[in-house]
Amino acid sequence: MLRFILRLFFLVLLALPNPLRAQPTPLTPAQYQEDFDYFWTTVDENYCYFDKKQTDWARVRTLYAAQLPGVSTWAQFVRLLENALNELYDNHASLWTNLPDSRRLLPSGADAWVQFQQGKAVVVAVRAGFGAERVGLRPGMELLAVNDVPVEQALRPLLGRSLKTVDEAAREVALNQVLAGTHNQTRKLTVRAQGKKRDLYPDQPTAQLENIRYAGLLESRQIGTVGYIRINNSLGNNALMAAFDSALTRLSATTGLVLDLRETPGGGNTTVARALMGRLITREQPYQRHEQPAEVRNFGVRRSWVELVSPRPESYTRPVVVLVGRWTSSMGEGITIGLESMGRATIVGTEMARLNGSIMSYRLPHSGFGFNIPTERLYRVDGLPREDFVPAERPEPAAPAGTDAALEKALRLLQAPTKP
């Protein structure tokens, strides 16, 4: 079991799901049916956010079971499962397998984020160091079309067929799926900026989102008297614990610490998270609350508990600022609310990925395809849902181009004598 869990953490860490590999023989119609029944029932019994959704899950069974007689290949079955899971419009629910023309996962496979504002698709965040930023996409621009298809038209096929009402949350997920694109197609983004239309090509000369590489598990340096540690999407890698310990030891004489979690879109595991937090506290404290709704649904008995984090040797006791943003997701969000709940850090940034709860992984009995769904709700210790947390300290919205407004604010809060 432990080996399976460790393997799962590695898979969750990856920015993209594994592509569908060649399979020996297709399943029989009965096996496709049994796999689909297992999938539908597992979601029905364990998914814990139906109350937030407009999804009619019983109708999902009817709609997609009706398509099973036409399924004769692995690829067709993957597409059916993708479409069925997309009915939840939940970025924390995903398959482990994808096709070349599958949509990239959100937020790990996205380099910008868009929201509808007064009927317009407005860019609200751009991922630092990736194609969208490189070609000039900036917050405040209006997204008009992707690959020459107007956004309103492009998002319609991605809206669930079972929805009782198409709510704003479903539209936002579909909109960002359009923006992120598919694994095998380069994107042309048509935007309006300062009254003028522009075409941007974030995947030229290469599709950077298909080949994400980092210099290391983390980066660290000293800025004046302040230490700085940036986590490079490695919260699911147990080797990060030793790397973090080493970096923090080198920075032990600093007057404050900036912990940058803005590039942690791939999630992680609680062992690594508690190890990092444990170096920043001096006594055992609660850092988040769990709730498992399935037990209430099945037995009428409420199950909830508070998770603790314990201090580790050589605690760093100076002030800490945590930087977060749209690509701070899942375990990164957990560390954020944990350090804030424990009164151990000031949080600076924008809203995070707002991923729902904690996921559990399952595997279909015949195809072997794996999938993840949220099965536990997560809260700050005081009861605030993790996905609703927004930092009180925000970066300067009108910061000059080329400056890191969030880092600059963190340094001011820590009273650093010099700028980076």
UniProtKB/TrEMBL annotation:
List the source organism. Hymenobacter cellulosilyticus
Do the record's keywords include Membrane? no
The alphabetized UniProt keywords are: Signal
**Stored Gene3D superfamilies:** 2-enoyl-CoA Hydratase, Chain A, domain 1 (3.90.226.10), 2.30.42.10, 3.30.750.44
Q: Which SUPFAM superfamilies match?
A: ClpP/crotonase (SSF52096), PDZ domain-like (SSF50156)
One GO term in the molecular function aspect is: serine-type peptidase activity
Signal peptide as annotated in the record: 1-22
Listed name of the protein: S41 family peptidase
Which Gene Ontology BP annotations are present?
proteolysis
The Tail specific protease domain sits at 188-387
Ranked from the top, the taxonomy reads: Bacteria, Pseudomonadati, Bacteroidota, Cytophagia, Cytophagales
Check the record and name the InterPro entries matching this protein: ClpP/crotonase-like_dom_sf (IPR029045), PDZ_sf (IPR036034), Tail-specific_protease (IPR005151), Tricorn_C1 (IPR028204)
Q: Which domain of life is it from?
A: Bacteria
